[in-house]
């Protein structure tokens, strides 16, 4: 009862700590792409870092509530005839109230700005990459896609009825019909079903359907762009494939739409897969079920892991109760020892499986490869640490619930410390067996039998070693004849290893057999898979230049993630002198936003009077230079705006614009002028062609005058006198 009362007394602290972690998780997942755009492990470490920053803040708020002048003492002081114990009664709720204050305070602008900076710091500290971008690029450019039967029939019907058989190809040979068919298949696999509420075969259970709905909600803008590009692709495909002599322009338009539909769809697919699966093996399996040409490696899931722990625990109970030569033991003590040993072996299996999966994934061809001894030793040491925690924690909880002390628990732990050798050796043994026999082409029962024998022999040696090291004094607590107990311990431990080895290798071989079938189906395909930029054309011409990797693009852009450039997002009033009439100022809106599909900042001009010259493009931010570059690149034509960084909300960005001007209407001339971008905060300033005498003309003109020479320089040709002196 004392333990229960202590738990109830401390429940406020327990609830507050757990609630604070939930708050940290929810906030760090804002925007939600933090979770769907990277691996679970890196996301989890980022949450831990962010949680560690919130703990001191929580403690400070709690101290202020308990001892501050505006805390609970102030509330108590305002209430007349209050109970003297009221202060203490309020103080016990300080942890929960402090969490609520932290949640509410984030709604204020200044606090939210600090919170965003803290999250950005933790994202960088956890080294979170744009894993979704890497996977999307891989799916779009280098991975084959084979639609399943139902989807294949649907794609065949769409292409045949709307365009014709000449546009249909599942050959995966890189031709234009093949890429066109592939793009239609990808779109109807993932994006199309959201409009007609069609069944999703690849989602599996309810969690998969819920994840799909969440990803499509977060990526609604990307999905809308995919819808628009899909319609354009169908029109371009109809024009190209039904033309007797298609022009290069038709081909370029079709190639561009195919690439955009593929990239946008694969971007959503990658985020869905990363959101659903926490491991590399799980992601490969889900992608293979969706039709991508992946052959997932052997796996050992949570169900098999939990079954292993249960079987080892049950087997341990049976050995301690029914094995001849054992002493009668208290039921609680039997359960404690069995559960501890079963969980330790479970951790050993988990560590061995992780190392084996990494080894198999790295191995190339049929070469045996060096054994992953270093990784297995590290995994074994981690398992030893977890086993030590179990050997202390489980008996300690049991002892406290029964009213005992911790002295006996620590004494028994020290006496049986050598028992951690068994899970350590099990990790090494299973890791080596799975690494080399998990890929065997023998029948599963042969592999299971060999794995059982090998792991049983390893754990027999481990049991013999442990029994020798702990000594007869400890063995006398469990066996009638301690001098003969070494053989019994070695036998029981070896039988445990036999069962675990057979079970693990059987599951490994089954999944490997499925993987081999998928790999052979891909290898025996009569088609050759081409990357998009190397694929031959049915018209015999050259394809567009290779698409640059997004990691290379990120290096060129000067940034990799949204966190570092989020401060630049928003709308700006852009104004500069008009090239046709210098006394007129042209003012319009430039919007800067983060594009999830491209993983970069994009800008787009709006509300231009001369709407035919509207521009959009990427934002480049050079490292170590206080400028932003707005670059428009279209068919060889380049327009550049280079301005200073808007460090403060009320400080405009100033610089130069370099573009082409055609004042005569026919001949283009390079032109440059000062330009200013002022952030739109409360209201939009005057737009259009601003002439002298207009309301905002003078303020615009003064801003433009400040550009030269601080933020831009026009270097004219040297005067004549300087030229003569030089001669």
UniProtKB/TrEMBL annotation:
Keywords annotated in UniProt: Membrane, Transmembrane, Transmembrane helix
Transmembrane segments: 12-28, 40-66, 305-323, 335-356, 376-397, 417-437, 444-466, 486-508
Top-level taxon: Bacteria
Entry protein name: Uncharacterized protein
